[in-house]
Amino acid sequence: MYRWSNRVQADQAACASTNAGRWTAKPPVAVRVSSVSVMAAVLVVGQVGYVPAMTEPGPAAWPAAPIRTERLVLRQSEARDRAALVELFASPEVGTYIGGARPRDELERTMPEVPGRRPGFFVVDLDGAVIGIVTFDRRDPERPGPSRPDAGEAWLGYLLLPEAWGRGYAAEACAAALGWFAGAFPGEQVALCTQTANDRAMRLAAKLGFTEVERFEAYGAEQWFGVRSPVTPSGRVRAAVS
């Protein structure tokens, strides 16, 4: 039985990856949003595919400076964040749309002392406490997904602890992360995928400016795939490439 999302497994495995250099994107790619939850809202269903960590050198400096919003700070992970990340991946509520929760004992055994030290992995900090993560990763084209095998897509993902749901933190964190990515990789499209059954994720996708490209079946559920067009230097939104 398929229980644990390849997407989240990838984040778990990538927690051990470190890179003090620079992070690259494939030019010009669609960035896919692998979002996971506010009330377990998934802006990219974890089951859609394995996500390789972004570790190759490139033009965007990493670690990035902390991203500050009205209420949150998106920053590089630290050793003190480990307990919160164990809670995150072990939460049945968070796992609703991503293949289920990860066993806590397995997480305690396998999660590195400093999890998520890799390019594109931000923890979401609220008043000094970690409430979730936002990540950027590349999709493995050999895994199930939308019919864009040559798009070179990256994923933006998020997971929030259940106690942080319903307060707008997911939208605030994702919008800030997308703003950072747009500055680091100007002109690149952003894409996302979610289960159509995940009403909260669908609403957040619309709020963040994503429009539908296609729907497809994967892991026994209908998936929705959409893109968010980049803003040109003139301030105009460039047409999406489907």
SSE diagram, text form:
Blueprint: H1 6-14, E1 22-23, E2 30-33, E3 60-61, E4 67-68, E5 73-75, H2 82-90, H3 104-110, E6 121-126, E7 129-138, E8 154-160, H4 169-184, E9 189-195, H5 199-207, E10 211-218, E11 221-228
Parallel strand pairs: 2-8, 2-9
Antiparallel strand pairs: 1-3, 4-5, 5-6, 6-7, 7-8, 9-11, 10-11
Strands of the widest sheet, in order across it, are 4-5-6-7-8-2-9-11-10
Which band does the percent of strand residues land in?
A: 15-25%
Total of helices: 5
The helix-strand sequence is HEEEEEHHEEEHEHEE
Structural class per helix/strand content? alpha+beta
Mean pLDDT score, rounded? 73
Task: Describe, in short, the structure shown.
The chain is α+β, with helices and mostly antiparallel strands. The chain has helices at 6-14, 82-90, 104-110, 169-184, 199-207; strands at residues 22-23, 30-33, 60-61, 67-68, 73-75, 121-126, 129-138, 154-160, 189-195, 211-218, 221-228.
Explain what you see.
The protein is an alpha+beta fold and 242 residues long. It has helices at residues 6-14, 82-90, 104-110, 169-184, 199-207, and strands at 22-23, 30-33, 60-61, 67-68, 73-75, 121-126, 129-138, 154-160, 189-195, 211-218, 221-228. The strands form 2 sheets. Strands 4-5-6-7-8-2-9-11-10 form a 9-stranded mixed beta sheet, sandwiched between helices. A hairpin with a 2-residue loop joins strand 6 and strand 7. The longest helix is centred in the last third of the chain and has 16 residues, at 169-184. The N and C termini lie far apart (33 Å).
